[in-house]
Hints:
Helix content: 40-55%
Radius of gyration: 17 Å
CATH architecture of the largest domain: 3-Layer(aba) Sandwich
Low-confidence stretches: none
Amino acid sequence: MHHVMFDIDGTLVESYDLDSELFCDSVKEVTGIALDADWGRYHHVTDSGILQEVFEMNGIPNKEETEAKIKRIFIAKLEHSIASQPIQEIPGAESFLSLLKSMSNVIISIATGGWYESAVLKLNSAGIDIDSLIISSSNDHISRTEIMKHAASKATRGKNYPCTYFGDGIWDKKACEQLGFNFVLVGNKVKHNQNITSFKSSNKALAYVGL
């Protein structure tokens, strides 16, 4: 049995830049803080993890209330954006997911550093079918590795199946190294020996999974 796990932004959907822009705008609107969008500098590259670090650095009180307000504004901005300009899938993503779903020896999950609500909005906007998919997110933990472990536990029901993770960031690669997951890079933000530019070449992606 193979477990295949996916990131969302920049991996399944073309939302990396939009997500970063709206996240920074939302934080600025609520707190007045101009975020450093070099996400790799943060200890936990997740929505909640970044906010907790920023709150600590800037002495922001009422952390839970402030995060909830930022989240509400971010979701509203995202809804407004995709209403006029739907998010696009990474070419071939939905077809590749459908192919994996048809395989009896494959389990699929999603582990994203974003919030669950925004994950669903982006995937639905891109036309990606999320029915039956396990989605773990920043709602579940501030740590990316813990989010990935959460997704794996739910998807495999605690069984130790080999896991391949498709992601686009250096934080994805580092998390896979920590967890012993097989990492496949989507795009060109990081140097890695296993790399695809899209899911249109499904045979190449399947080969990296070991299928």
